[in-house]
DNA sequence: CTGTTAGCGCTTTCAA
DNA sequence: TTGAAAGCGCTAACAG
């Protein structure tokens, strides 16, 4: 099976020239006779030769490949990916999305590891999705989307998490809910903190108490949300509404409610955050806060390309969020 | 900015040993004194060293990285990606999704180019999404999802396109439609041909004529679908229903209908294919044929890993499709 | 205009 | 148990 791939050496031998000459032809360098160039080109076509990204990148400084590093391919990161992909068209760059399997994403600092692995340089620059540690120096230009620490002195794209959480909670309050639970995100993420802050602020503005018992950590991942969702829904004084820190945990919350024989939105209203496509598919369709993920991906790519071109750009881009009311919330019946 | 990354040489120098020794420690080879090993390990941790995938792959045959090659990150390929990503957890493999920017996906044979670039070996095996040319020998184990030519003597995963198209068209016929247009996919794709065959068969079984004027090529991409959709909808004897070969072109068809002042499903019913999450978000929600994309991704990964482990597996996996009725189709009013 | 040479960071014999 | 040296495929000086 493992027929070794054709190398530049094979091409050189077949064409009767040196590898250096072939390299020049491939890269369009000056100093090759037209006739030679054509002959080499023919051999390249005949053999179906394509230069190895690996070998090339070991030697040269540019590969025209942009990396996008994610902990896992889930709805959020894939939406970003769609945005980046649409924006990369015509820029001359190719895209390489990298994700460790398994729990790598769980370890803080996964982005450092991945970057180290790919650097050197398989990629010219990288987009980090939800990195936990935003270290100072990475060796290559880097843009972060929704980083752990929030904007911290280097290029960042995020959404207005605070306002989004505020309007989500205000929506529930406007519907007459007063006992509103919150399924928080990962404690180490700035976005998570901002969403909780929006929740608290909305309650306070409405003159409602913030009951610590109603706040649980769901951790953004569906699996991790199950247990805390169950706790909230089996409280003796059960909340009549829950604001989950992202759609995945909101959807899981609705599933748990179903298992407990509770109807959404009949017995409990649920609001999510992100507006991933899956939220509209849920039963009932999830009321959520839209985060313009594809636009964020495009913005990140724009920042990164400017960086690669040596143009310094405004270090921080924040895009607006917006409440999307669907079927998982309803007015509280007294 | 470009602080060069720490290399194995840096580690060796700091630890006062040779690079060879460091390499052995990293790879857990025998023949290193425990004390030395510990000292080297400490330096590695201190320096935050991570070996370069690039350099390593140039030398050794395994990288434990699986490639997934796509023409573009759009809803279909990202759904597959989610499936592959969930299945890769715990296998010890990492994932590298690669996509050329721009029109690379348009050129037939893009998968060959990408594979050549990544081979040699950045990746141990690859999953090819909708490859156009399924060449015999690629040098590394390869599994194709929904290939151009259909199952052709090497491992393939696809969905039951014919049955899906059949039930989509039968659904329209059952609703009383008799003039049913078809917006076909890319002419070079087997899946596209099968969907058209399902459409034709359903019409024939119902004793309806297949009017060639009602069949246009939409090409699976949203942009490419606009013109043919417009043509169908402005025909003097306009069809009362359209079966589009995938969701993206179905959604575009609905948009075009809107621009033309036609209501969906009031004036024209529309059915798609794939059931990408976006289809449920469309206005109105799209009736479509579900293709279990995440399961297909998981199946492809399973096949590939078995191949990598030297286990030969059943070369062809076909998953069932299923009609999902939503709001874009309705009974024809006479 | 073309070829020789020297690495890029790493793994792997093979000697010491 | 360790290290020196070769070489993976390629590019970039530099010589011829």
From TrEMBL, chains A, B:
Signal peptide range in chain numbering: none
InterPro entries linked to this entry:
HTH_LacI (IPR000843), LacI/GalR-like_sensor (IPR046335), Lambda_DNA-bd_dom_sf (IPR010982), Peripla_BP_I (IPR028082), Ppantetheine_attach_site (IPR006162)
Keyword Transcription regulation carried by entry: yes
Which terms does the record give in the GO molecular function aspect? DNA-binding transcription factor activity; transcription cis-regulatory region binding
Sorted keywords for this record are:
DNA-binding, Transcription, Transcription regulation
Query: What species is this protein from?
Result: Georgenia muralis
Protein name (record): LacI family transcriptional regulator
SUPFAM superfamilies documented for this protein: lambda repressor-like DNA-binding domains, Periplasmic binding protein-like I
- Gene3D superfamilies, per this entry? 3.40.50.2300, lambda repressor-like DNA-binding domains
Keyword Transcription among UniProt keywords: yes
Residue ranges occupied by any HTH lacI-type domain in the UniProt entry: 6-60
